[in-house]
């Protein structure tokens, strides 16, 4: 494998470095594409009820989400120092094979951000193709490279998409099996699952929507994400600048995906924090819908939907929601961080250092 790499890529670009570049580009791309709607989406939805002028800004931040596969492809390419044209070619291939659209009656319909794993895979394949042929096309590069690299990688990606999607579906099936268990056990397992999934290449929203996760299960999923977010915030503030920590806290947990892949020990504090939060959620009867599960407190989607299922006074509902989505996850994260770094000494804080390069 290494010999093959050395024949195609520069000597310092080992398989490990290659993977890290793909993960880093993906992490930044997700933040760029999802943060606008994560921060402003629910706010604009509320403001629309006051004035229709906010309809257009809402459409804009929602539309930006659909460009995630393109952004991810471009930023992955830039990690490898490719030219602007080569980066756009990579982004085009990534989008073509992402599954972010469907062809219905001859019309292209956007359906989401697609399958992130297949997006990464297609971008990686496109980069390999570019490295193989970019210096062999001469003056025909501008004509042939988009066809060979974007078209070739896109075709391969479209062919792999059904198989990669089955992996996501298998995870959904496993999570769905937890819904048959006793409520507290179910809440713990679903909370842990989504706490881990949110920092992986798999989409929590896609999983929740695919299996129709609602009621207490939806609430547990959101609280697991909140626990992971708080754990990342608590850990990030020790080693990263405030911008990174704020981004994570506002919903960009997947930007820590490279850290999770390189340091799987991070799973342990996430499990601890998610367990505590899941237990609390089951006793507080935090619920949600399939459409709201998978967001956590990002954009306040989880909290707003949880309040719709509460029967108390508005003030009491707000207090319970605040405790469930913010206070308990924060306390759980602090406990998990203390146990893992001070008591068990499983890792050093630098495993959470974010490196965008």
Automatic annotation (TrEMBL):
Residues 21-353 form the Phosphotransferase system EIIC domain. GO terms for cellular component: plasma membrane. It is a multi-pass membrane protein. InterPro entries: PTS_EIIC. Keywords: Cell membrane, Membrane, Sugar transport, Transmembrane, Transmembrane helix, Transport. Pfam families: PTS_EIIC_2. It comes from Vagococcus fessus. This is Phosphotransferase system EIIC domain-containing protein. Coiled coil: none annotated. GO terms for molecular function: protein-N(PI)-phosphohistidine-sugar phosphotransferase activity.
